[in-house]
Amino acid sequence: MASLSAFSQAGARTSKWAIELLDANGAFQGAATEIWAHYKAPIALLAAGHRAQADQVLGHLCRHFLRNGDFHYGAGDPTPAPGSNYRNGWIAWGAHQLGAYDVSGPVLDFLESQIHPERGGVLDFDTASTMHRMLDIGTTASVVNALLIAGRIEAATKAARMFHRVFGPAAGADGRVLLRESWDGQMLEPERLSTVLKFMTMRDGCRVPQEWAALARGRSVLSRIRQASKGQGGQLNGLLAIELNRGGQIYWFLGFSMRVLAQLFRATGDQAWLTLGHRVGGLVGRCQPDIYNSATSAKVAWGAAEMYAVSGDRRYFDLSMRIADWLISTQEPGGIWLRRPQYERIEAQPLSVSLDTSLERVVYMYEIPRALGLSE
User: Fold this and answer.
1) What is the mean pLDDT of the chain?
2) Entry's InterPro entries (predicted)?
3) Nearest-angstrom CA–CA distance, 53 and 41
4) Which of 203, 261, 336, 374 could cross-link to 277 by cystine, CB 3.0-4.6 Å?
């Protein structure tokens, strides 16, 4: 079992590697225009004890990407629109923890505007196009997390209503968990995958003309998404559903959900949130064995640690440590994590993917042992 020092040493290796890539303006050299490379850096570097560098990156994000509470207006950014509010949630979290309330406040205000007013859930990305207004459980988890960190409990619980629909008593009854729904309340089936691919690349649904140009330039980024989904049979079905009876799923949705459901219970004392968290934990137990060593399972270790912290159930401790041990063992000596099996060599993995994957895990290297109560 990994020791507290093993966690902190892993986090320190990655943060050292990332800091060496920063230029004087707080941008990562080689990926300065990509939001994908930067959005987790403020909270990750802060967690590792590098406040000055975290502030630097936040400054770059504000100067280059931010407009009206949304960080997806960067000139030359090839990142497609889907997942925008998921990324905004991570940045709001980091900004708030840094005490940059002049940044986090407007971003959180914007994110509150993305919550469905009646049913909860958060838009995957901001668009006026009805056909592209999708509520996503992963995006919802990211935004609820940021709202809770900032003490916006009412908004967080409103957004979190979607968890009741996704993880209600019928979740997994047919062997799968659906993860997205349309604005009008229809759960999106994997059979509608062609629609998902369509709004990732077409003009309709984009906020401003220059965003279409960014999407056109972003075909390389879209290809990375397709590449990263090869573990899901070479398709993007995993963004719409988790198939409990098949391996190679995108498991992180379950982990982030456990994290925020535990935090909702802690913030409100409402037992219903803890019950939902246990239900998600039950779904994790029904997944195939590759959940313990999947590139998409880091959040499962994180979420399980938070569930242990609020419930004391030793099964969550064991689950978290089993995945965390694997994570630490697979870190490259220089601090990078590869998204295996999609990439087997550092040279083959795009820098933005290396930063996205590795900086996220820095956060977990400090959050998991805290939640589990590890000590030397």
Assistant:
1) 90
2) 6-hairpin_glycosidase_sf
3) 9
4) 261
The answer to whether the peptide bond before residue 82 is cis (omega within 30 degrees of 0) is no
Q: Domain tally for the chain?
A: 1
Domain housing 270: 4-372
**Local confidence band at 204 (pLDDT 50, 70, 90 cut-offs):** very low
Q: What amino acid is encoded at 19 in this protein?
A: I
Neighbouring C-beta atoms of residue 362, cutoff 10 Å: 28
Given the structure tokens 């999407």, which residue do they identify?
A: 215
| pLDDT of the residue at 68 | 96
Instruction: Dump pLDDT digits (tens) for 206-261.
Output: 333 333 333 333 444 444 444 444 444 334 567 899 999 999 999 999 999 999 99
Res 215: pLDDT: 37
Burial classification of residue 292, based on how many CB atoms lie within 10 Å of its CB (0-12 exposed, 13-18 middle, 19 or more buried): middle
Distances (CA, A) of 66 to 58, 103, 273, 362: 10, 9, 33, 24
Phi, psi of 250 (to 5 degrees): -90, 100
Please give the C-alpha separations between residue 331 and each of 123, 230, 326, in angstroms, as whole numbers. 33, 21, 9
| Residue 148 vs residues 85, 131, 159, 161, 336: alpha-carbon distances, Å | 16, 30, 11, 14, 30
Q: Check if the beta carbon of residue 187 is closer than 8 Å to that of residue 181.
A: yes
Spell 77-105 as b/e; 16+ CB within 10 A means b.
bbbbbbbbbbbbbbbbbbbbbbebeebbe
